[in-house]
Write a structure and sequence with these properties.
The protein is α+β, with helices and mostly antiparallel strands. 37% of the residues lie in helices and 31% in strands. β2 and β3 form a beta hairpin. The longest helix has 18 residues.
Length: 134
């Protein structure tokens, strides 16, 4: 059941990325990242997580595999979280903060700190990016 839910979320995200003009490869059962996507300018290495809860914990190992692969590949490491019935939230793997032994992502934090798909794909700048470049 868990695998099907994750695979279904991965396929949903692939369709969203393809609509944004990205070429996408899903790495099923991968020990690296779940999705690799690129459009010639932006390259994303994505770990997809889904939860029915209002919080999710990532292990150090999960985060390190995304950071390591994205660094070697030359892409941006992204943690994509689908909170069931609350939508998608995207985090830069380099910006997540440790909470005890793991990395905690709550729906409340996601609503305030996560990026949108448009920000991740480079279609839209975040307010912080606009301020920094201004």
């Amino acid at each position: 059941m868990r695998y099907r839910k994750g695979a279904s979320a991965e396929r949903e995200l692939i369709k969203m990325l393809e609509k944004e003009g990205f070429a996408v490869v899903r790495s099923a059962g991968s020990k690296k990242v779940d999705i690799v996507a690129g459009n010639g300018k932006t390259y994303l290495c994505i770990e997809v997580k889904t939860t029915r809860s209002d919080k999710l914990y990532l292990s150090e190992e999960d985060l390190m595999k995304v950071k390591s692969f994205s660094s070697t590949f030359g892409g941006k490491g992204i943690i994509a979280v689908k909170f069931i019935n609350n939508g998608w939230y995207f985090f830069d793997a380099e910006e997540l903060k440790k909470s005890g032994k793991n990395y905690k992502i709550s729906l409340q934090i996601a609503k305030h700190r996560a990026k949108t798909l448009e920000e991740v794909t480079g279609k839209q700048k975040s307010l912080v990016e606009v301020i920094r470049s201004g």
